[in-house]
Amino acid sequence: MSVNVLGKTFELALLRAGPQDFPFMPNRHALFGVVGGTPVFMVYSLALSPVIALSMALGTVLGIFLATRLILRWRKLDGRFAQTAHALMCTNALLTVLMILPFSQIAPLLSELAANPEAPVPTDIPGLPVMIMNVLNIWNFLITANVYRHATDRGFAMGLLYSLMSSGVVLATVLSFGLLLGGLGIGGA
Fold it and tell me: Distance between CA atoms of 26 and 19, rounded to whole angstroms?
């Protein structure tokens, strides 16, 4: 089964499939949450404390699940939730894994800036890792649009709008978790 999931994830990443092609495993949300959250935690932990990184990874996973549930419920397509959410978790995990190496080159600069926000921004930020991360983020946005397009039986323009809405929900969820921890005084470096 895992070979099939991996193969479909690559097909989704190449925009050659939709969530309907993804294996149907309705009782595996926690498993796919771990698959989706682990690479996010790994990236965030390069620049943040482990507690904050874990909470932000959890916020990302919950945000993807929440956005998918809201969009599909709005379109009255609740039965497509499992395949759509799992497809998004796996493609997000794949692209996030690809982002670990470029982010690791920028993380020390971000940690320095976070430690001393008054310091001048360094001018020697490596351009290639930033460009690679931007390309991966844009590609992830397009994959998400393609998945939502197929899941909702809409055109690519609506898929882009759903992807934008999903990004907003995920960002709000991640920020909420970060603010909650900050308000509780948890996760200081």
Answer: 13
Tell me if 53 sits within 8 A of 45, measured CB to CB.
yes
What whole-number distance in Å separates Cα of residue 149 and Cα of residue 71?
A: 11
**Both tokens assigned to 106:** 């920028």
C-alpha span between 93 and 120 (Å, rounded): 33
Distance CA 137, CA 120 (A): 27
Q: Is residue 66 within 8 Å of 173, Cβ to Cβ?
A: yes
What is the distance between the alpha carbons of residues 45 and 43, in angstroms, rounded to a whole number? Answer: 6
Whole-model pTM? 0.89
What is the Cα gyration radius of the chain?
Answer: 17
At 151 the pLDDT is: 96
